[in-house]
Structure formats: structure tokens, C-alpha cells
Amino acid sequence: MVRVRVLPDYESMSAVAAEIVAERVREKPGAVFLLPTGTTPLGMYRRLVQMHRREGLSFAQATFFNLDEYLGLPPDHPASYHVYMQEHFYGLVDADRARIHVPDGSAPDPEAECERYEAAIREAGGVDLCVLGIGRNGHIGFNEPGAPFDSRTRVVRLAESTRRVNASDFEVDRAPERAITVGMATIFESREVLLLASGANKARAAAAALRGEISEAVPASMLQRHPNATFLLDRDAASPLDGAVSEGEQRSNEGSTWA
Ligand code: F6R
Predict the structure, then answer these.
(1) Ligand 1 nearest-atom number relative to CA 36
(2) Tens digits of residue pLDDT in 169-204
(3) How many Å apart are CA 123 and CA 117, to the nearest integer?
(4) 26 bridge partner residues
(5) Pairing of strands 3-7, 255-258
(6) What ranges in the chain are assigned the alpha helix state H?
(7) How many angstroms does the Cα of residue 142 sit away from the middle of ligand 1?
């Protein structure tokens, strides 16, 4: 059963997400995290950086993996997820470089890089908390519709719609064609999953993931089977679920329900 928490807006969703990550690292300083890039988690990272600066929240013993990286981009390319993570999180807290892992999109042998990455996650003892965004087509990581639920870290072809949505990070009208992504099974094996969705343009995907049929056509729907998954939605992303969230919860500042 997926837990669903509906927050009034993006800022409060980000605050709750940051508090959950902070709580996990306080409980277990050596926790293993699997993290997203994109627009959605920016507020969460901003708050985690603040907590590090103001309260001394430490990430020094934690291990970090990223969900994905574009194929063909060197780690110093401005649109690479290496640079994104450095600028928004890893470079602003006390994360230990030796415990930060982002797939190498410029590896000469991408298949070998995927195997190495998957093995590194295993060797770290698996993932304690996986934080996800969601694509408008229901993708998680870069597992596009049709991604097998038993897939592992691998090279994938991005959907045309994803390449267009992500084009603004590049000087051309499309993001790269291919990427490395952590697989569906690897995500599913995380001991806890937290999916963030904000804004009306995520509402259909979030509703399909939570209430639709469990199907590889909507990758995030796999999470309905996860024993410890939470969706944090702001009110716009939750709008099609209105009937499913009780009146009292809708009125309260922070609603919470079970899908
Ligand atoms: C990126 C990732 C993607 C994004 C998704 C939503 O690392 O894993 O699945 O989470 O494309 O992106 P935004 O947050 O930019 O809407």
C-alpha cells in the first residue's frame, strides 16, 4: 500500500521531503541514498543544504548514488547530472567524494559501466532510501514506459517527449538520445521509496501511478507493490485524486491518506 501525503504547495512538499531525508541520515549516518535530479527535488536539496549549514546536519558517512546520467556527456558538461548534483547538493554539504556515485556517461564501455554501478550498489548493502521524481509519462529514473520491472542498471533510449521536456538544459532542441539509468528492480529493492510530484503537469502521471493498473506502460505504478513507498504530492499534482482524500484532510494544511 502506497502512503500518500498531499501538501498545499511545492515549498511545503520540499520541506517534508527534506525532513524525511534528514531523519534517515540522523537515524543512520551511514545510510545509502539513491537520488534524482531535475526540477522537482531542487527545493528539497536547498533545504538539506540549509540544515547542513544551520544545524550541522552531516552527510559525511552517507553513501550516495544517482539514478541516471545522459550517455555521451563527460562529467564536467554543464548539463550533466554530475554537475547538477555538485552544484545543488554534493558540493554544498560535507558528502565524502569517495562515497558519491553518479553513472559515468562518458565511459568507453557503457555496458561495463552499468554492471560496475549495479555492483557498487550491491556492495554498499543496497539502498536505504530512494527519492524519485516522476516524468509526465510516468517514468522513474530514465525508465521510460515499457521498461521491464525486472530491469537493472542499463543503457536506455529516452522517449521523444522526455528529450523535448529536458531540451532546455542543452543548446539544441533535444536532450541526448540515450542515458544510463538504474533499473526498475534496483529501485524496487530500495528499503524505502519517496516519490515527489509537483504541479498540474504531473497530475495524470501521479494518478495513473497510484490508482491505475500496475503495468510496465506506467513505470511508477510498480511502486503500488512496494512495502514502504510514499508519494509526496502538492495539491496541483494531487488534483485528480480529490475524491480519494477525505474532506478533513483536504482542508488541513497537510493532508495524508492511504492509496
Ligand atoms: C532525473 C530523473 C527523472 C526525473 C523526472 C522528473 O534524475 O530520475 O525521472 O525525476 O524526469 O523531472 P522534473 O523533476 O524535472 O520534472
Answers:
(1) 7
(2) 898 888 899 999 999 999 999 999 999 999 999 999
(3) 10
(4) none
(5) antiparallel
(6) 10-27, 42-55, 81-88, 110-123, 160-165, 184-188, 203-211, 235-238, 247-251
(7) 8
Instruction: Select from 61, 72, 73, 56 the least CA-distant residue to 30.
Output: 61
Q: Which atom of ligand 1 is nearest to the CA of 142?
A: 9
The three cell numbers locating residue 249? 484532510
Q: Which residues are catalytic?
A: 68, 137, 139, 144
Which pTM does this prediction carry? 0.94
Rounded distance between C-alpha atoms, residue 117 and residue 182, angstroms? 8
Burial of 150 (0-12, 13-18, 19+ CB in 10 A): exposed
Does ligand 1 come within 6 angstroms of the Cβ of 135?
yes
Is the CB–ligand 1 distance for residue 67 below 6 Å? yes
